[in-house]
Give the backbone structure.
Amino acid sequence: MSLTEIGCCGAYCGTCRVLKEQACKGCKIGYDTGERDIDRARCRIKVCCMKKGYTSCADCPELHGCRTLNEFYAKNGYKYKKYKQAIEFIRQKGYSAFLKIAGTWTNAYGKYENK
């Protein structure tokens, strides 16, 4: 597991079969090396996050006032609320704690407590 498996928005890509089969580069892979051009990316969240040098939006001091991110989280769908929950978890507990929990998931999001 690595930080590149955490999407800028909070999605966890480590469970993605397509990424594991290397048919997808995920949200961030290749931008740090220049292999991919961030200016050509369509995701506004990713462009902002990567240009600012953040691992995810959890690192951004403007997180709660970010219109782009808040519009994304307000979309209709359970996953968007879970991605927001991931970013909040990372802000509170850190990336190591997030990766430890996310390593038990089977989707791009999951539960934060063991039952």
